[in-house]
Specification:
about 280 residues; alpha/beta; Alpha-Beta Plaits; Rossmann fold; seven-stranded mixed beta sheet; about 35% helix
């Protein structure tokens, strides 16, 4: 295992996220001053690390056999999602108990910074979860299931289960992401959350879900809309994210071709997250 790393100004964080979007082996950490970030990419071979270095500069080194994910784990404060969720990068039970005492009545989700996206602090993930909290509140007392496309670390599916979903199914095409997601499911002690290695562009739904979250890069999202529309119940709610601002209009128009519309749109930084459903559902909101 090799690692490429580079220090950069914190103001360039979005740019680095854009450059390595879709690479599950990327970790971007804020240093203590909050003015500098460390960008790291883990590779299987020295050749891959050298190719990144040739393009972006920085340094490379070979990792010794140790828990490198824990060593490079960024320190970040807990993320608050409405009055319902706390997302923490901690791993141990003592930290969970401390957070439960500090934030009584909230669900505590532990998502360490492993080799997958969706630790909860990215604008796309956090906004998806805010929408999810609102949906769960509306569905309180009802039976509902949830599909999480592009699950990454599994945090959204885990959150949905804690918020009252009966069953959650997370999918990702990347085997490493699925491995991390399953680990996080076990870490957080939730059941009835399934994680599967699935390419959404080659997938045919065998059922429908009342809540679907699709947090994927817009080029993939646009290709996946036919499958997403098929997977969503007629009166279901759809959350989409992973869309850059300048790609929103195109993404929205493609969604409309498959009968999907969005009544709530949030722009945060460079990213867009939207909530809606089939035309009839979206038009009622």
């Amino acid at each position: 295992m090799w690692i490429w790393s580079k220090l950069s100004g914190a103001q360039w964080m979005d740019a680095w996220e854009d450059r390595f979007y879709g690479n599950p082996n990327t970790v971007i950490s804020k240093l203590k001053t909050n003015k500098t970030i460390r960008v790291e990419v883990y590779t299987e071979t020295e050749k891959e690390a050298v190719e990144i270095q040739q393009q972006f500069g920085g340094s490379i080194r070979k990792l010794v056999h140790k828990n490198w994910a824990a060593v490079t784990e960024p320190t970040r404060p807990p993320i608050r999602i409405r009055s319902s969720l706390i997302i923490s990068g901690s791993r141990d039970e003592d930290a969970r108990k401390k957070l439960s005492h500090e934030f009584p009545g909230r669900h505590i989700i532990q998502i360490p910074a492993d080799m997958a996206f969706g630790t909860g602090d990215h604008a796309t993930t956090s906004t998806c979860m805010r929408f999810l909290v609102d949906i769960a509140q509306d569905k309180k007392g009802q039976d509902w299931d949830m599909l999480d496309l592009g699950t990454g670390s599994g945090v959204i599916a885990i959150a949905a289960r804690m918020l009252g979903a009966r069953h959650c199914h997370g999918m990702d095409f990347d085997p490493q992401a699925v491995k991390v997601a399953r680990r996080n499911v076990r870490r957080n002690g939730v059941n009835l959350v399934k994680m599967s290695e699935t390419d959404v562009l080659k997938w045919s739904p065998d059922r429908q879900w009342p809540v679907v979250v699709a947090n994927m890069f817009s080029t993939i999202l646009q290709q996946a809309f036919p499958v997403i529309a098929e997977a969503l119940t007629d009166d279901g709610t759809l959350i989409i994210s992973g869309i850059l601002k300048d790609q929103w209009d195109e993404t929205r128009k493609v969604a409309e071709q498959y009968g999907l519309s969005f009544s709530k749109v949030i722009r945060k930084g460079k990213w867009v997250t939207a909530c809606g459903g089939h035309f009839t559902k979206a038009n009622k909101n």
